Amino acid sequence: MSVEGKNRIITTQRLLEMKRNGEKIAMLTAYDYTFAKIIDEAGIDIILVGDSAANVMAGHETTLPITIEQMIYHAQSVVRAVKNPMVVVDMPFGSYQGNSKLAVSNAIKIMKETEADAIKVEGGSEIIDSVLTIISAGIPVMGHLGLTPQSIHKFGTFSVRAKEEAEAKKLLEDAVLLEQAGCFAIVLEKIPAELGKKVTEALKIPIIGIGAGNGVDGQVLVMHDMLGLTKEFSPRFLRRYLNLHDEVLGAVQNYIKDIKNKDFPDDSEQY
After folding, report:
1. Which residue, of 7, 44, 148, 210, has the fewest CB within 10 Å?
2. Which of 189, 194, 201, 232 is catalytic?
3. pLDDT tens digits for 33-88?
4. Do 167 and 154 contact (CB within 8 A), yes or no?
5. In angstroms, rounded to a whole number, what is the distance separating the alpha carbons of residues 110 and 144?
6. Superfamily assignment of 12-240 in CATH?
7. Is 61 a catalytic residue?
């Protein structure tokens, strides 16, 4: 019996090959069908359905409030759109920490209901039992170290992490631990470039950075930031490729003006 399904071009095996060949990995977030379809068409390697949806889609100050059900909704929308890139879904805060049985149950729920390719979790030794249990269920796991936004209340700041020797040493140890547990890749967020390069050279799995320098295996940004939809957020690592905020603002203002001036619709735009 044959089953027709979505056979992604980008798989965990392909990502390992990309690292070995020195081919950089491009990753971007998406949260809805329309943008995901465009990003797929552009040729992205990985789409991350990030819990940053809590910020850019729902207006929360942190990523903590978003729920599993909301993450599943966004992931379903993205998966329907894409053909080629790997789709990775963030497990939200509280869905995997401290309880490995709950973690695997929630990971299975996400995978079954979204048909995504993998999940992502934040943390190292603190969550390793959950990582091992999820991977033992056959679910690919991407790690995330450095500035982990779900722990923002513990850190108390969004400043660069692992600048001190002790924290840098723990980050490297955690990265090795995640690799040994079976993670297929790790995101490093907002750490010194030298440390990002050191971790990348020490591990066989791909390291994807967001503010981790150019010595890592790939880069990820939040779509809304990269396209210039958000204007308040301007960290050093962010490169804006478009100023979509002003483009949309101008378009909507012109739409309003045309209606007020009775210029829209004209004779050619009615039946």
Report:
1. 7
2. 189
3. 999 999 999 999 999 999 999 999 999 999 999 999 999 999 999 999 999 999 99
4. no
5. 18
6. Phosphoenolpyruvate-binding domains (3.20.20.60)
7. no
